[in-house]
UniProtKB/TrEMBL annotation, chain A:
Keywords: DNA-directed RNA polymerase, Transcription. This is DNA-directed RNA polymerase III subunit C37. The lineage of its organism: Eukaryota, Fungi, Dikarya, Ascomycota, Saccharomycotina. Residues 1-50 are annotated as: Disordered. InterPro entries: RNA_pol_III_Rpc5. Pfam families: RPC5 (PF04801). Transmembrane segments: none annotated. The keyword Transcription applies. One of its GO terms (cellular component) is RNA polymerase III complex. Residues 41-50 have a biased composition (Acidic residues). GO terms for biological process: tRNA transcription by RNA polymerase III.
From TrEMBL, chain B:
Keywords: DNA-directed RNA polymerase, Metal-binding, Nucleotidyltransferase, Nucleus, Transcription, Transferase, Zinc, Zinc-finger. GO terms for molecular function: DNA binding; DNA-directed RNA polymerase activity; ribonucleoside binding; zinc ion binding. Residues 681-1050 form the DNA-directed RNA polymerase subunit 2 hybrid-binding domain. It comes from Zygosaccharomyces mellis. It comes from the Eukaryota. Its EC number is 2.7.7.6. Belongs to the RNA polymerase beta chain family. This is DNA-directed RNA polymerase subunit beta. The lineage of its organism: Eukaryota, Fungi, Dikarya, Ascomycota, Saccharomycotina.
Length: 266, 1143
């Protein structure tokens, strides 16, 4: 996961008032959640690292307890452009639904190549942005880390979202077509007067609350409004500094010993 | 070895005369060993059985149900809300069986034996703690009884739990009785272990000829059970589910799960493997042909195909979401917006299909034991209880609503008052299901019959065999060989010999001796542990790198991947061995699927093995010494990481050595004892490894029919039918299993001295020649005990059945029929009953159906219980008690003492059965130099074709044991060595081969050949001539056909069947035919009208309206019946008569 998906670090003080700082992922030296993994070995996973000698001891800092870090994984971004910041598409808009933790990012499409302008103007109604959408999934025990001055700084990750293309314009067109169809299909037979029976429902009708599970989640998501957020890039250094400062302010002291830790594990 | 020394020493002291014979030259068949692990490790087995017992799987499962599962069920159905009053609620807080909340000890239950005798159900009350509203107040109430739960004997809710021999004796229980069954209405019922294909696992199957591959998964949760398939059709892959009208292209399903880009679909299913990509590519076209590009479009497409009927109307999109989130792969229910977990599961199924399409060998084996799960009593009762509890709650809610609906109630409604009304439903529902064996659950549309069986008490071993039996769900009539075949993976888990012959062959199996069946374990902590051990969470992994590493599956569901599977697995095992996680959780790597599988689910069979590390067994001699001293118990071996449980799948990931010398560096485990491949029944056979395999199977079936001692409380029992052997003996040639299961304490057979020779010609076809004096001395003598029950009913008009006294003749003596009655009208204990005599003189009131007011003076009609049997019986016990419903219950036990007679069936322990062909005076039988006369003479022709070499070795070992004064062992893959036995014989002046010179009892000359002569353990089987002999001169006829009835119990005739008829026709014996088929059967005189050919009556033809042409003739009544039935169908069979006196 680490090499492939770049981390956009979103630092929000609050759910609603957003203060973004983001950096191109390439600048992060050791990203990902490495706290419990041990050393990262390259992808030949099968070999065991039993005779791993300790080369260097690196001090760990746990920082940013009050930072809310979301990690974005771009499921469709090629691995190749990973570290070349310039080739990452520009983000024009970012939206977020707090309760359902749904992210949407807009990137403008490259209209210079492989882009059919005629079609766009006709059928697709100015579809010149690509929307990426993802649902944040809570991640307990995952940390993002960076190295500064030979020290590792760990920040807990709040949520991780995998962003995938979301073709709202296709769905919109489909919806429109369906409506048109139903309009066109209105034949005289359908226009006959019909007796409509209605019953008064109480507010806490059990039928309404019967939606459960995923349906309920979708309904809540649908009814929730997006909060528009501003996209800021190149704020990594600033973030880094604040983290370093943060961790120098306080010192972590273990309250239990090794034994307690092992007890807690299992 | 230490064990054997300890056992033998008192023996040596007792028999001084044999002292010199017993000098330890040979008894130390193990004397060559040093005190190391090699031979002593078997001591772990008794230690295992001490902890686990033979029926532990039943007890564990039931304990888990009452302690854990019950609470889960309560939690899932916690609240009762009223539709009428929104304020009202009732909440279940806790549930307990057989113990009140503040009580320090369990409730007193009616002891099991009393339940057996009084036809009651051995059950304990189910208590719940509830919290509910009464008016404005919230009220807590503890210990509300909602029904009674049948209790499994010797489970932790049973009063026999952990009780010693003394308490057991006080309660009239046998201390050797394993428990594990229920007593319902006085009968002992076993819930057999059911074998099923494992739930929530992907099974891939392929038909190479039809080019079909399918992956299926049976999802099973508390709420839902459904099956999802991923199938191929014309090389394209579809998803199939019962509630989706047609097959959905797999890419559409994945798009609906949010995997919108084709690239990602490809990554998830195929990874980087180009051959998989080629196979799969065509499916991508399928979706684009349908014009489906977005998740919403895909969801709507699926939603339009859903055919579930709902009360609530959903939009097409909602239907689609519902289908993907809950219907498909129902055990992974998505509650939020993220379908990734489900997408991955479906992608994995698809990947498995693609793998099988590329290589047809990449399929799963349905018959592989690792793919099976065993369903035990606890799980079955849990299903039933949840059903009943839901119904109980519904009824309860309905009655609450009914009251709350009334607008002005005089006082506050107390819901507690109406809770007891429905409690009978739970009690009777449980009782009915267990006593009939019909498991019908409306929730899952499950209708299963024959789940429970009456515990067979024919012998101790048959009861034990029943508790270890496993029945599979397969249809018996289907002619498939796969499920019936012996699977290599059964080794050590299921007995390789014990299965019935005939239609259930291979479908009914038995557990091996040292097995354990797991119960469900929590998944969440294990999942957490995996992440701690470095597994990367599936929600964080991008699709491209999913297949780069090994996947980690928890109970069949992908939870993450690991780069270092070997390290991960070894760390996980290390934690298990150190006791940090349950010892029954299994983990293994499957390199074909690039997967690490972890299983925590219940119903897996597993067995303990000794851990071997660095080429050394972790169990050492010191450990075993401690074990023998009692300082260590079996569970300590688990905790110390010396022994661990492996299930079938994990066994496949290990290298298991049979014996210590076999250990090489790569060996990971060692068997505790190889003879544990056999089960309890096959364990009785001495030297089974020398027998032809089917013979062992035959013995397993026959061992269950052998008459012997049943239990220590056998004389206190009043069972429908009980066979007891009068002088049972423990076998001279024992096995370790015999000692472990205490067969030597409740044996079923006798050590007979057998001469293998021909005698008299009455020994053809395996018939045996029996020594009359042996029979006089008590050989093969047995007892049958038969119960008769009578209930003195009470009727609504206050009349009731009564017992009349005895009737006397003019001299004041009882009449012959009443001779065995006492003054109370019941037979007296010890009295002899002849056929026709009465032993319960019951009378029924004639006016029982009249009302109380119109009642006339009671008159009684006699309905005595009359004894009818060819041989007289004695009254053994008379019991009068009161059953559950307050009616007097009378049980009379009749006893018959039987000595062997011609035709009684005997068998050795090697599948060699035979009937008694002749009983010979001892003087006429051959005798040896020592004057020993055989008890049984068996014809040597029984050996060549049967190849039961074990029987011959048994004879030699037995003979050596007799000379030596010791009991020898014939344990499978071990036991006393033949050379040692021969040496003992030689040292005692016998031939090494067990042959002796015999002299004819008739002429006194010595016989021309040496005779194989020695003791063999013989079982008397329950098939006895007395129960089967039958003849009839005249007797009852069936009403419809007027032909003689069928069967011995109805005093029926002996049928001259179709084939016999053919013989008689071929012989030309027409008059014989006429006599057999008509005159002795259903001859009937009819009157036939010669004119119309139809039958009339009393000299009158009804169709011709005349008496002119009527002729009388005899035809079978069945023929007359046929004619009339044909007439009723508008077919007129007309008889044309000819004059027999015509020229």
């Amino acid at each position: 996961m680490s090499a492939k998906s770049e981390n956009r670090l979103f630092v929000t003080e609050d759910e609603d008032v957003a203060l973004e700082s983001s950096v191109p992922g390439g600048q992060i030296d050791a990203e990902g959640d490495i706290d419990l993994r041990g050393e990262e070995v390259d992808n030949n996973g099968d070999d065991e690292d039993n005779d791993d000698a300790v080369i260097q001891e690196i001090p760990l800092n746990l920082a940013g307890q009050n930072e809310i870090l979301h990690i974005f994984q771009y499921a469709n971004k090629p691995k190749k452009i990973g570290r070349r910041a310039a080739e990452h598409p520009y983000i024009t808009g970012a939206r977020y639904k707090g309760t359902s933790s749904v992210w949407e990012l807009d990137t403008p499409l490259d209209e210079t190549a492989f882009y059919n302008k005629d079609k766009n103007e006709g059928e697709w109604k100015d579809a010149n942005t690509q929307t990426l959408r993802g649902v944040g999934v809570g991640s307990e025990g995952q940390y993002a880390a960076f190295v500064a001055d030979g020290q590792v700084y760990l920040t807990p990750v709040e949520k991780i979202a995998q962003l995938r293309p979301y073709f709202k314009y296709i769905d919109d067109v489909g919806q429109q077509r369906k409506q048109d169809d139903s309009k066109n299909a209105t034949t005289p037979a359908n226009q006959k007067a019909q007796v409509v029976t209605m019953s008064v429902r109480s507010v806490n009708d059990p039928v309404q609350s019967r939606l459960a599970g995923s349906l309920l989640a979708h309904k809540i998501e649908e009814e929730e409004e997006f909060v528009d957020l501003a996209w800021v890039e190149g704020a990594f250094e600033q973030f880094k500094e604040s983290m370093v400062a943060d961790s120098s302010n306080h010192e972590l002291r273990p309250i239990g010993d090794e034994h307690d830790y092992l007890e807690n594990l299992v | 070895m230490v064990d054997s020394k300890v056992k033998k020493q008192p023996h040596i002291k007792k028999d001084d005369t044999f002292q010199d014979l017993l000098q330890p030259v040979y008894k130390g068949k193990k004397l060559t060993d040093d005190v190391s692990t090699a031979e002593d490790k078997w001591n772990l087995l008794p230690a295992f059985l001490k902890v686990k017992g033979l029926v532990k799987q039943h007890l564990d499962s039931f304990n888990y149900f009452v302690d854990v599962d019950l609470k889960k069920i309560i939690k899932a159905n916690q609240l009762i809300l009223s539709d009428v009053d929104p304020e009202f609620y009732l909440k279940y807080v806790d549930i307990r069986v057989g113990q009140r909340s503040n009580a320090s000890s369990k409730d007193y239950l009616t002891p099991p034996h009393e339940c057996r005798l009084r036809d009651m159900t051995y059950s304990a009350p189910i208590y719940v703690d509830i919290e509910y509203t009464r008016g404005r107040n919230i009220i807590m109430h503890k210990d509300v009884e909602i029904g009674r739960m049948p209790i499994m004997l010797r489970s932790n809710k049973c009063i026999l739990h952990n009780s010693d021999e003394r308490t057991m004796a006080r309660l009239d229980e046998c201390p050797l009785d394993p428990g594990g069954y229920f007593i319902v209405n006085g009968t002992e019922k076993v819930i057999l272990v059911q074998e099923q294909l494992s739930k929530n696992r992907i099974i891939v199957e392929a038909d190479e000829k039809k080019a079909i591959v399918q992956a299926s998964v049976t999802s099973s949760t508390h709420e839902r059970k459904s099956k999802t398939y991923v199938v191929t059709k014309n090389d394209k892959i579809y998803l199939k589910h019962n509630s989706i009208a047609e097959e959905v292209p797999i890419v559409v399903v994945l798009k609906a799960c949010g995997i919108v880009s084709d690239l990602e679909v490809m990554q998830l299913v195929c990874g980087n493997d180009s051959s998989y990509q080629d196979i799969f590519a065509v499916n991508l076209e399928e979706a684009s042909k349908l014009g489906l590009y977005t998740q919403q479009q895909a969801l709507e497409y699926i939603g339009s195909k859903v055919k579930t009927v709902r009360r609530q109307k959903l939009s097409v999109l909602q239907e689609g979401i519902e289908a993907i989130a809950t219907t498909v792969i129902a055990h992974l229910t998505v509650a939020a917006l993220d379908f990734r977990e489900k997408a991955l599961y479906i992608a994995m199924m698809t990947r498995r299909v693609v793998m099988a399409m590329q290589n047809y060998k990449m399929v799963d084996d349905r018959d592989y034991v690792g793919n099976k799960r065993l369903e035990l009593a606890g799980q079955l009762i849990s299903l039933l209880f949840e059903d009943l509890f839901k119904k109980f709650n519904n009824d309860f809610k309905a009655s609450i609503d009914k009251v709350l609906k009334k607008p002005n109630r005089a006082m506050e409604y107390d819901a507690l008052l109406s809770i007891n009304v429905h409690s009978n439903n739970i009690t009777s529902g449980l009782n009915r299901a267990i006593s009939t064996g019909n498991w019908s659950l409306k929730r899952f549309k499950m209708e299963r019959a024959g789940v429970t069986h009456v515990l067979s008490r024919l012998s101790y071993i048959s009861a034990l065999g029943m508790m270890t039996r496993i029945s599979s769900q397969f249809e018996k009539s289907r002619k498939v060989s796969g499920p019936r075949a012996l699977q290599p993976s059964q080794f050590g888990m299921l007995c390789t010999a014990d299965t019935p012959e005939g239609e259930a062959c291979g479908l009914v199996k038995n557990l091996a001796l040292m097995t354990h069946i797991t119960t469900d374990d929590e998944e969440e902590p294990i999942k957490k542990l995996c992440f701690i051990l470095g597994v990367e969470d599936i929600t964080l992994i991008d699709s491209a790198s999913l297949h780069l590493h090994y996947g980690v599956y928890l109970n069949g569901t992908l939870i993450g991947t690991t780069k270092f599977p070997v390290k991960f697995v070894s760390q996980f095992r290390h934690l298990r061995r150190s006791g940090k996680i349950s010892e029954f959780i299994s983990i293994y790597t499957n390199s074909h699927h690039k997967a690490v599988h972890i299983a925590t689910d219940g119903g897996r069979i597993c067995r303990p093995l000794i851990i071997v590390s660095n080429g050394k067994s972790r169990v050492t001699g010191d450990h075993l010494k401690e074990l023998l001293k009692g300082k260590l118990v079996f569970d300590d071996f688990l905790k110390l990481g010396l022994v661990e449980y492996l299930d079938v799948n994990e066994e496949n990931d290990s290298f298991i050595a049979l014996y210590e010398p076999d250990i090489t560096p790569e060996i990971t485990h060692m068997e505790i004892e190889p003879f544990t491949v056999l089960g309890a029944c096959a364990g009785l056979i001495p030297y089974p490894h020398h027998n032809q395999s089917p013979r062992n199977t035959y013995q397993c079936a026959m061992g269950k029919q052998a008459i012997g001692a049943i239990a220590y409380n056998q004389f206190k029992r009043i069972d429908t039918l009980l066979y007891l052997m009068i002088y049972p003996q423990q076998p001279m040639v024992k096995t370790k299993t015999i000692e472990l299961i205490d067969y030597d304490k409740l044996p079923a057979g006798q050590n007979a001295t057998v001469a293998i020779m021909s005698y008299s010609g009455y020994d053809i076809e395996d018939a045996l020649v029996l020594n009359k004096s042996s029979i006089d001395r008590g050989f093969g003598r047995c007892e049958t005990r038969r119960k008769t029950t009578a209930v003195l009913k009470r009727y609504p008009n206050h009349t009731q059945d009564i017992i009349g006294g005895m009737r006397v003749n003019e001299n004041g003596e009882p009449i012959w029929q009443h001779k065995s009655l006492g003054p109370d009208g019941l037979g007296e204990v010890g009295m002899k009953l002849n056929s026709g005599q009465i032993y319960i003189n019951k009378s029924v009131p004639t006016n029982a159906s009249e009302g109380v007011l119109t009642q006339t003076q009671s008159q009684y009609r006699e309905t005595p219980v009359i004894y009818r049997a060819p041989e007289p019986s004695h009254i053994d016990q008379v019991m009068m008690s009161v059953s559950d419903n307050d009616q007097a219950l009378i049980k009379v036990l009749l006893r018959q003492n039987r000595r062997p007679e011609l035709g009684d069936k005997f068998s050795s322990r090697h599948g060699q059965k035979g009937v008694c062909g002749i009983i010979v005076q001892q003087e006429d039988m051959p005798f040896s130099d020592q004057g020993v006369v055989p008890d049984i003479i068996m014809n040597p022709h029984g050996f060549p074709s049967r190849m039961t070499v074990g029987k011959m070795i048994e004879l030699i070992s037995g003979k050596a044991g007799v000379m030596n004064g010791s009991l020898e062992y014939g344990t499978c893959f071990g036991g006393s060595k033949l050379e040692d036995m021969s040496q003992i014989l030689v040292d005692n002046g016998f031939n090494y081969s067990g042959k002796d010179m015999l002299y004819s009892g008739v002429t006194g000359e010595c016989l021309q050949a040496y005779i194989f002569f020695g003791p063999i353990y013989y079982q008397k089987l329950k098939h006895m001539v007395l129960d089967k002999m039958h003849a009839r001169a005249r007797g009852p006829r069936a009403v419809l056909t007027r032909q003689p009835t069928e069967g011995r119990s109805r005093d029926g005739g002996l049928r001259l069947g179709e084939m016999e008829r053919d013989c008689v026709i071929a012989y030309g014996a027409s008059q014989l035919l006429l006599e057999r088929l008509m005159i002795s059967s259903d001859a009937f005189e009819v009157e036939v009208c010669e004119k119309c050919g139809l039958m009339g009556y009393s000299g009158w033809c009804t169709s011709c309206r005349s008496a002119e042409h009527i002729n009388k003739m005899s035809i079978p009544y069945a023929a007359k019946l046929l004619f009339q039935e044909l007439l009723s169908m508008n077919i007129a069979p007309r008889l044309k008569l000819e004059d027999i006196f015509q020229a």
